[in-house]
Amino acid sequence: MELCGHLSPQNYHTIHVFSSNLSSAIASFFTQNPLHKIAQISPSPRPMPGSDPLSQQSAHDFEAYLITHARVPDLPSPLCAIIDFQMGWTKGVFFFWKFNIPVIGLFTLGVCTAAMEWNAWKVLAGDLKSGETLPVRGLPEEMSLTHSDFLRKPFGPQRGSGQSKTDPKRGGRGPPKLGDRPPWVPKIQGSIALMFNTSDYIDGPFIEHMADQMGMSAWVVVPLLSQQYWNSSAKLIRNCEITEDKQCQSNFTEDEITQWLDSKPRGSILYVDFGSKVGPMMELASARRVRWALRLGHTTGVGGLDKRMGDGGLVIYGWEPQLLILSHKSAGGFLSHCEWNSTMEAIGRGIPFLSWPIRVDQYFNAKLVVSYHKVGYRVAHDLSLLITKDDILMGVQRLIGDIEMKRRAEVLYAKFEHGFLASYVAALDAFENFTSQNQMVV
């Protein structure tokens, strides 16, 4: 929806395709815009290992929609189809070429992660030994591949029922090892260009690199964050204005959370959101002012965390207003898994990181934050081992006490904030120029 919103000022008409079971997530501002149309398709269950995603009902529904659209007299052919490569059932881009619709692949993750995964595969970086470093031609020296990049704790289901854990190249849903072919490679085949959910100020050096490596045009679309985020650069962001009240269910209201934050000194709160991983946080809670968020439905085993934190911390069960907290003057750090949207939200508010990645793209998001931008620390060197309370406490002490890192985070925030409009215009110009040069017509 955010991408459609970015295209609206240029009077592009968009058709947003989504599963019918997600209709409640469509914001009212989107449906009220005459430039936007919605195409609902049947939801499909997660495919079984080895199954053809194009056999799913959602794929059949979408093909039927395209056929119906093509039969409408005098209806212009779509300019292009912008496809999130993570939507497995759209893998067959022949769907679109069959109707003479060119495809642009959309990466909702950052371009840094894509570039690093690509190069790790191409140079067989999985063979790196301890202490070895492998520079990547065309990328900053700080982003050289190292042995520590491969020290990761296994996450998610194994790759296929009954298959050997030592055979990562066989089918299944489990994530590939770093150094294997990235899962997005076959999914973007047939695309004529790539879009990345990021900003020049975050991922600048990696964009041209990916365009060169992929042999096609690539550009940013400006971070696909809510319009309220961009309209509130110097203000608190009220999450319920974005997600609507029906989703804002927790044990505190936004006003109560704001009042608590207002009572704390500037930059004194460490924001934490790790679901039910309470164990190591107990010592952290008593050592520093911490805001700890616990998702609804995972409240067992808290062990008196609320009392232990006292007024120095706030335990929120259920939905949590992350943007409200990150945009508040009392926020001083973010203990984060480095999920991509959360990473961009924090960078855009000048918040330094203590990174604790646990899955897929989070590791290279963390490397971008820590090694390239230098606005954060890793919670530990070897992320394949159990993270202890001592690891966390040491990381918190370094983060809270590093004044220079806070200054760098503020500088990056200023670039992000003041460069948004120019980056936004440049992205739209790049899209328009590309479609014109390739003689795409509406």
From TrEMBL:
The keyword Signal does not apply. It comes from the Eukaryota. Keywords: Glycosyltransferase, Transferase. Residues 151-183 are annotated as: Disordered. GO terms for molecular function: UDP-glucosyltransferase activity. Belongs to the UDP-glycosyltransferase family. PANTHER family: GLYCOSYLTRANSFERASE, SCOPOLETIN GLUCOSYLTRANSFERASE-LIKE. This is UDPGT domain-containing protein. It comes from Cephalotus follicularis.
